Amino acid sequence: MMKRFAYCQGATTTWPHHATEVKPVSVTARDVARVAGVSISTVSRALAKPEEVAPATRARVLDTARGMGYLPNPAARGLITGRTSTIGLIVPDLENPFFASVTKGVQSRARVAGYCVIVADSDEDPSQEEVLARNMSKRVDGIVLCSPRAPDSVIAQLALECRLVLVNRACADIPAVAINNLMGIRQAMGHLRALGHRKIAYVGGPATSWSNTARLTSLDVVATEHPDLDLVDLGSFRPYVSGGIAAADLVIVSGATAVVAYNDLVAFGLLDRLRHRGVSVPGEISVVGIDNIPMSEVAGVSISTVSRALAKPEEVAPATRARVLDTARGMGYLPNPAARGLITGRTSTIGLIVPDLENPFFAAVTKGVQSRARAAGYCVIVADSDEDPSQEEDLARTMSKRVDGIVLCSPRAPDSVIAQLALECRLVLVNRACGDIPAVAINNLMGIRQAMGHLLALGHRKIAYVGGPATSWSNTARIASLQVVAAEHPNLDLVDLGSFQPYVSGGIAAADLVIVSGATAVVAYNDLVAFGLLDRLRHRGVRVPDDISVVGIDNIPMSELTFPSLTSVGIPLVNCGRAGVDLLLGFVRDPSTPPTHHHDLSFQLVVRESTGPVRTSPALQATA
User: Fold this and answer.
1) Would you state the pLDDT for residue 38?
2) 416 and 515 share a domain?
3) Beta bridge partners of 494
4) Which residue, among 236, 86, 65, has the nearest Cα to 149 in the 3D structure?
5) FRET pair for 529, CA 20 to 30 Å: which of 260, 377, 426, 463?
């Protein structure tokens, strides 16, 4: 019998019965000064310029500030120091694992340095990079522009307008973290040549990609070094699985015995299509990927009129408003968000905290949050807690004075901590229920019923569950949902194998327990865990689905590319992020009215190759 857990089933969104504006518990510099017996200016100097304050006074102020939980107002400090303690990051696609990993690295390093990170996704559109950088420039101390698709002329102009650092791109003398593509290409091509391959195809990425150009140049260098090498450039393709699928037939007809793909996603598409075409990899064609993924005076009006014309246009005469707006556009004026925030009490920025940016589930949610916030004129500060519940609390408190509200996704912290945070800032939860805090809650029972119904229909009666983190609300909800299904089907023997890390390694660790449990099917906490199960079962000689059927949860894009492809249940993850932003902005704009969203969050079962009828032969014999 599995341990009974509490489960909160209900509507997709929740809202307090008597929702009113949150009154954050806020300690000011005036409060600290009063308790410490010093002036407000002394408090400011002790915190911002401690060397200007006597040691004993400084120690008294710092002890008082810590004891009272005082956090300086970043906007006010920014107007004084000219710094925001925030940096910007622009990437082409947050769902691409390459950029998810870079984002995680940027956020981690910035956090250590006391900085927050505003993240923006350009959707692989070069024109959007320019727009995003200009919109972001007055909110941040500088921008990291990763793998930009924009031409050199645009990047050079942006570098004149703001502090700019490039990652995976070289452009004149702009500071850059440049990747040595020649080294990587030499290693890949050397490996293939050592295996005897002489006719090798290249499936390129976007024509606007600096990396693609650099890789083509590197391939030319290698071809010059090895005259016996016949290099076939198959052209440019989308940097996704779909690009590899589109290119696979060209690889086949090219006669190449090996192919190098622009990135691993393209390589995954190649593998999938080649398999469906009956081409053996590596028997007939070897495939190598790249990345190795897990504007007042000119207008003739006062400054205050300009502020009202831009922030509250309804308070300004139409003719004056038109003159101000035309002048602002003509001069390329962008308001100072910090100054506006002190006047309006709004920052036009929201926060997002996720457990792990490299997990495709959270990368997709982040993309949805960023997309929806951008459409509403908001920036997003993203933070990664590294699956550490204590870090969620620290991140939320650090972030709270910089943003209008926070979307907390799949938090691992206990209810008591989350409830306290909700008293201190506007908070919306995604994939978690906690009291009457506004939430986008996923109906796990719907998904579990679909998965278990599918397995029951295939004849399975002894089914194992490989769980996720013990602190995960989703894991608790799924176990409770499994118990509901077990109660509905008395002939079902449900085996709870315990909690595991929510990664591929967790599935690998659990696979041997699945085998000895005698279960003929297994449901994994998420698709990553299921990938680990598939890998370890294969190495143990256990056939999927002949011996054991495997079902994942989340239906991330990689699920259709495993071998066998993974049966999974999931919801549109990007919609989770969008729904969270809708709830939060509704809360910000009118806290007295329960906000709603209209995004599809229903579970869908996608049946693939990893599930089949229960075996009728004797019990499986796994190899050691």
Assistant:
1) 84
2) no
3) 463
4) 236
5) 260
**CA-to-CA dists, residue 495 to 129, 498, 545, angstroms:** 50, 9, 18
Tell me, yes or no, whether 121 and 146 share the same domain: yes
**Residues in contact with 271: Cβ distance below 8 Å, sequence separation at least 6, in sequence order:** 244, 281, 287, 561
The whole-number mean pLDDT for each consecutive block of 10 residues of the chain, a chain of 624 residues, reads: 33 42 57 83 73 83 75 51 80 89 91 89 91 88 93 94 93 89 94 96 92 94 95 94 93 96 92 91 94 53 44 60 60 49 65 92 92 91 90 90 91 93 92 89 90 96 96 92 96 96 94 97 96 95 97 91 92 89 87 63 91 76 63
Task: Supply the angle between the helices 55-68 and 29-36 in degrees, to the nearest 10.
Answer: 120
The dihedral over CA atoms of 196, 201, 205, 206, expressed in degrees to the nearest 10, equals 150
| H-helix segments, 376-472 | 389-399, 415-424, 444-457
- Calpha distance 357→70 (Å, rounded): 29
Kindly state whether residues 376 and 495 are assigned to the same domain: no
pLDDT of residue 296: 31
Task: Give the residue numbers spanning the domain of 376.
Answer: 86-172+334-425
C-alpha 76/C-alpha 74 separation (Å) is: 6
Claim to verify: residue 471 and residue 611 sit in the same structural domain: yes
Using CA atoms, how far apart are residues 588 and 405, in angstroms rounded to an integer? 7
Cis peptide before 360 (omega within 30 of 0): no
361 within a domain of the structure (yes/no): yes
The answer on 258 and 202 residing in a single domain is yes
Q: Could you tell me the CA-to-CA distances from 126 to 90, 103, 210 in Å, in that order?
A: 11, 19, 12
